[in-house]
Amino acid sequence: MIDFRALAERYDTPLYVYDFNRITEQYEKLKKAFSGRKSLISYAVKANSNLSVITHLAGLGAGADCVSIGEVKRALTAGVPKYKIIFSGVGKRDDEIEEALRDDILMINLESEAEMGRVEAIAAKLGMQARVSIRVNPNIDPKTHPYISTGLHENKFGVDIETAKRMYIAANKSAHLDPVGIHFHIGSQLTELEPIKEAATIVADLVRSLLAIKIELKFFDIGGGLGIVYDDETTIEPYDYAQAVLGTLYGLDMTIMCEPGRFIVGNAGWFLTRVLYEKVNEGKRFIIVDGAMNDLLRPSLYNAYHKVEVVGKSEEGAPADVVGPVCESGDFFAKNRPLPPTEPGDLVLIHSAGAYGFVMASNYNTRPRPAEVAVIDGADRCIRQRETFDDLVRLEKMCL
Ligand code: LLP
Which domains does the chain carry? Predict the structure, then answer.
């Protein structure tokens, strides 16, 4: 049991709190599900890129799925071996590609023919052969929020099957490209298995057709996206997930890769904020807290549901909106929740904030980003300090 009161006392609010033992459990569940095969769990660094989180996962054996050279550097700094790092993303700058090649990471994931041309040219300039995979867009509806759905042709991600095939043939002929993997990712917060199975079937068929023309790939990367419980969702069991994918790989001896972010860290994190005061506007109740949309954006951006609890008070009360101090009506954490009466200073705990929480925080309204605390075997330590006003203005110049 985490003592949130003691943490608020020690580190102040607003605060992110992560349970590292929970992170371990989630990682192990997934690793075990794929234990029948060679597998690599490449943690999607974008979900929570705190160096201590990445180091913890690296210690468990995880690789890293990165979407910018900054994330690649984080992964290397955190101790992820270079041969477990992949670099994905729909648009990469030449300098990012060059640095990734110099870093000698496991592979660069290509999302267009144009990008393949750039990677080939840069590898040629460096006198290298670039290990690459290609992201295939299987045109499958993942049945999730439109902002986090990625596997349909109307989305900007990946290439269609025919283009992918053409690209593999070209890459295989190139002296500067070494096609080693194939990749798909149909969306995030997936709660249905069928779309994943369909996508894996389409991509595995492509792998077999490539094998028939002597293009042999080593890595079958199924992306991330496993959903978690925010409210009352029925989620996919890692075992069923693994079985569904493995079932499509008959005749293929490949290393399975997956890139979970949310599944690993989502429910291992909380956002802790303090009640400033309550007010009622013509019968509408508001609980105003010291955290805001700049700290945790998901409710404002996706209308995402996060469980909200007033620490130490379990009774229900009149429906209330939990809102922050930012000058936007969209600055809320919850709407119309039956919450107990609160006093200034009460602590409000926002659940499921470990993924896409701190990483999406900003300094809007000149608000310093919160501190982050890790709890490991009952002991807590600060893994990122709260920003100060000086941090916020450090890069600005008074030039008038
Ligand atoms: N791999 C690729 C290629 C991805 O695009 C993503 C997420 C992942 C892996 C990790 O997905 P996960 O296992 O965490 O679902 N900010 C949004 C989520 C954006 C996800 C973007 N891509 C949110 O707060 O829900």
Answer: 4-15+267-388 (2.40.37.10), 34-260 (3.20.20.10)
Q: Is 258 a catalytic residue?
A: no
Nearest protein CA to atom 7 of ligand 1, as residue = 188
183, 188, 230, 356: residue to mutate for ligand 1 pocket, most atoms within 8 A of CB:
188
CA of 162 to the centre of ligand 1 (A): 25
Residue 82, C-beta contacts closer than 8 angstroms, at least 6 positions apart: 76, 103, 104, 105, 106
Which two three-digit tokens encode residue 256? 């399975």
Q: For the whole model, what pTM was predicted?
A: 0.96
Q: Residue 213: beta bridge partners? A: none
* Successive 10-residue mean pLDDT values, the chain, 400 residues: 97 98 98 94 98 98 97 98 96 96 98 96 98 93 66 75 96 98 95 95 97 97 97 96 95 96 98 97 96 98 97 94 95 97 98 98 98 97 98 88
Distance 187 CA to ligand 1 centre (A): 7
Cβ 137 vs Cβ 158: under 8 Å: yes
Q: Is the CB of 298 under 6 A from ligand 1?
A: yes
